[in-house]
């Protein structure tokens, strides 16, 4: 049987219907319609279908109405236009100053901790919602920090960006009639150790991912041309100089590098990228990135894309995983706009075609 919800008799059925039909505000009208229909004996599922509101929102609306009454209905945003109704200009400046340091109770700032700070300042209780509103009003955003190695040298990184642009110009001057492109590449280890990712589910579901931990690995070699979003892939069992030499040879042959086309290839300082036995094919100019600087590497943006079909899955063996990874790389070959949007950093050299 569809679930029917009990409605407290704050208003009679006829009063609810009258307020629903006379309401001028769209939100208030919908709220009274929901309470009226439920009070009339309709199930929550039927009300959801009629009004378009989700079950979870209907339950929240009923919870407020049963405990508070008609005052809980309607668009409460009309009652306080913005977050400046609680704090004056001086108090807002004090809040901004407080937000520049960690909260007294430790951890990180959130709506509740801002509300606690405001409550102490104003001498009365402030809801968590108002704390969140002030965070938003001050143009603050909840974002995950970009990792930066403590040994990274920001000045060296800026100099390298200039060096990359200079190298591209030099290659163009040395080969005035040839096509020049700026590529980069990196390697990514994937294996039978599960990759767990968050997924969207309804509020009543606890997602479960079947896992079977084994430490067996493959290496995905990913080349990307950020300006166009073009990619080139190898799936191999190891990383070493001998294999990397073969990958470079194949890359040069695949794109016909040589007399009429040259590639400036940006690499990190992995041992097999800098080994004395490294053999660089004609048509490739390698430029090494500064150490401890993954944020300079556009190819790092490829791995969340290649991990997508592997996440929350268990593979019986590496062959099965390789098959899925192979098809994913084939898809990404055709999704150049997506790749370009992720990898074409604003400072990356743009070469005229």
UniProtKB/TrEMBL annotation:
Gene3D superfamilies: Ribonuclease H-like superfamily/Ribonuclease H. It comes from Nostoc favosum CHAB5714. Residues 105-163 form the Winged helix-turn helix domain. It holds the Pfam family HTH_33. This is IS630 family transposase. Residues 182-321 form the Tc1-like transposase DDE domain.
